[in-house]
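This section describes the prediction task in plain terms. A model, or a person checking by hand, is given the sequence of a single protein chain and must write out its three-dimensional structure as a string of tokens. No templates, partner chains or ligands are provided. The sample shown here is typical of the held-out split.
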Amino acid sequence: MGIRAQAVIGALYGDEGKGLMVDRLAAATPGAVVVRSNGGAQAGHTVVAPDGARHVFHHVSSGSFAGAATHFSRFFVAHPMLLLDELAALEARGVTPRLTSDPRAVVTTPFDVMLNQAVELARGTGRHGSCGLGFGETIERNLHPEFSLVTQDLFRPDLGERLAHIRDAWVPARLAALGIDRLPHELAAALADEATIRRFHADCAAYLDRVALWPDRRLGELGPILFEAAQGLLLDQDFGAFPHVTRSKTGLANMLAIAREAGITALDATYVTRCYTTRHGAGPLAGETPTLEGIRVVDLTNAPNDWQGILRLAPLDLGVLRAAIASDLAAERGGVAVEAGLAVTCLDQAEGAFFAFDGGDLVRLHPATAAEHIADAAKLPLWSESWGPRREDERKVEDVAVA
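The expected answer:
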């Protein structure tokens, strides 16, 4: 008998409510292991626990408040410097998640962060929308075997020498390729400081104390599987508007690759959208407007910051939503059966009638029926609608059983 798994996928530019959905599904799935199928610590998935505790999950899965374990897949980008801080914050709330990682998960170094920040600063007003955490630069470096660093490499006795090689050979070559002849003073000082490698080496040792190596192919031995995607379909490296994309596949593709390795034969995929559109970072946003008629936007997570600016708003474009989901569902499945449904979030923020676009037409939506209308437009069954930030704020949920 094959394994059936669940998945949560953002259908827009991220910030759709994936954390909320993962928390709810994990709470309904005892013993679940949540698999991070793409992205890294630049994710920001917010969960509000039943007791009111609020956490923005970056590295650890959003199922942790519900007791789920976390697995970092081979497509995940590990960030030892940031994981330890997040674990400390969770432990202060009495949450100590069980963590495993595929040995092939790539690892961000301090030098990737420096390069990322240097190139984004050099773009001035033409920024691509980076979070400044080194994600894209980690992917780029690992395309070059001489400079690659994956999780199993953290056990190497010559780790310090390998990090020095990345600093002394990769960083100058990459800066030259990027056309940057000088780092900002603060970054240059950190690059030259020998303590940078010592601190990172200590972070890696602490990382290995908390994360057990476990191959993706043996996921079925850990418990019921729930995939958690990061970012959204409109930021997918192949589907999104280049160059304002993430360097990962944000939908089914990675999940299906992992599923085939792990013997997963069926996948229930929940696509998530707000009832309006947000984008936090640079890039095109059709219909962008400073305020949304009929919507009182509440977002405590996406505060303005130096890297991504303010949270940007637009009415939901049903045609774009439909096309993004259809494109993702067209992925080569390799024998894995996929059932898909839609979750619509942030309906509690609709104070009355509000508007969406569909094929250039303006569509008037009413809060009580908006989720059904959006799901019909997306050509998916409605599996969930959310009227608040907690799992108990879910309505009309059609639970998907996990075998």
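For orientation: The first helix runs from residue 18 to 27.
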